[in-house]
Amino acid sequence: MIKAYAAFGAGGEIQPFEYEPGLLSTHEVEIAIEHCGICHSDLSMLHNEWGITQYPFVPGHEIIGTITAKGAHVHNFQLGQRVGLGWHSGYCMTCHDCMSGDHNLCAQAESTIVNRHGGFADRVRANAASVVALPNSINAQTAGPLFCAGITVFNPLLQFNIQPTAKVAVIGIGGLGHVALQFLNAWGCQVTAFTSSDDKKKEALALGAHQVLNSRNPAELGAAKNQFDLILSTVDVKLDWNAYIATLRPKGRLHFLGVILESLDINLFPLISNQCSISGSPVGSPASLETMLNFVVQHDIEPIVEVFRFDQINEALARLASGKAKYRIVLSNQ
Prior knowledge:
Layout: E1 2-6, E2 15-19, E3 28-38, H1 40-46, E4 62-70, E5 82-85, E6 88-90, H2 96-99, E7 110-111, E8 123-127, E9 131-133, H3 140-143, H4 149-159, E10 167-171, H5 177-187, E11 190-195, H6 200-207, E12 211-214, H7 218-223, E13 228-233, H8 241-245, E14 248-256, H9 268-274, E15 277-280, H10 286-299, E16 305-309, H11 313-321, E17 328-332
Parallel strand pairs: 10-11, 10-13, 11-12, 13-14, 14-15, 16-17
Antiparallel strand pairs: 1-2, 3-4, 3-8, 3-17, 4-5, 5-9, 6-7
Helix pairs in contact: 4-5
């Protein structure tokens, strides 16, 4: 019996919950959870903002733990090995995207917290193909957010072959943005942080930004015209996207990582005349996760987290919802 924490209705309080996982399949592993990060996606799913949540709902998809059981066909992990599990818990392993290494684009991919129970628990199961070994030198307590926030901001650097000489800006210095600044600085880019908070200016510079622009100041936005090769948007609110597009260089890209439920109001002429692009991407493949973890080790990068016990889950969720967390929240079973 797996002991977990679940909500029984949209926006409901998280309560203790137990379920029987059944027999372990031949390609699955069972992970004893040590730590699990909380992501804004957990909040969105809790409140059924995307219309896909099923209750009882067990959140949690930034999981760090050790393998306690494995199926007969799992040969790449050992019992007791520390691993991480992110947004995806399995792939079809036969489609063109999987066979091309783009597992995160698999149409049949299983999401860790969609139609299955996630990591707010003592144990979780997943297909071994979606599990990634954690390097020994990484801090297990802070590593969970790398498996969602970290890979979300790292994946575009790989997908678009971002050069170390690129000028890159980040909108929103929060759970995703504070990791993005560290990655981009280590990547070698000239890094700009867009933030509406004066309090975050000093923090953004410490995290790796070379300059910080006030996103609420039209003059500062105007002065940045024709400056960036890439802008990563990590926010979930509607902004004046045309003002940001104006700051792109020819062939520049505005790339969305935060989920905005409202439609985008975009003027096409600046895109056409400067051959600019608008795009988005989800997390990353297991191979990309492994590459990111190696990069983190090489450059000593670590998410900044606040730690709560699992039995403080409702307090932790309230802290995340307040927008005051710095910068990610991790639940700990230890």
